[in-house]
Amino acid sequence: MAKKEYKKTKAQLKKEEEVVFAKFGIGTGEKSLRALIKGQRKINGKLYRAIDLILDSLKERSGGKAADPALDEAQRINKGVPGPPPGCS
Fold this sequence. Notes:
Oligomer: single chain
Distance between the termini: 23 Å
Number of helices: 3
């Protein structure tokens, strides 16, 4: 199974965070709320990546074909998860 690359530069992450904060109306002085949002985005991103890898592995084990329609549906749902900001990082 090919390993997927999910790395972003610090500058890219900072820019994405600022877009998220702006979208939610979070000012620069709201340090604890920014830290909470940043932490939750990291958790969400890790969960998304883990689910993606699990689904890829299940698909590979089934010979490239879904063992059942639920697997295809799970992949379809997971592909839309990061989406536009606020999205997962």
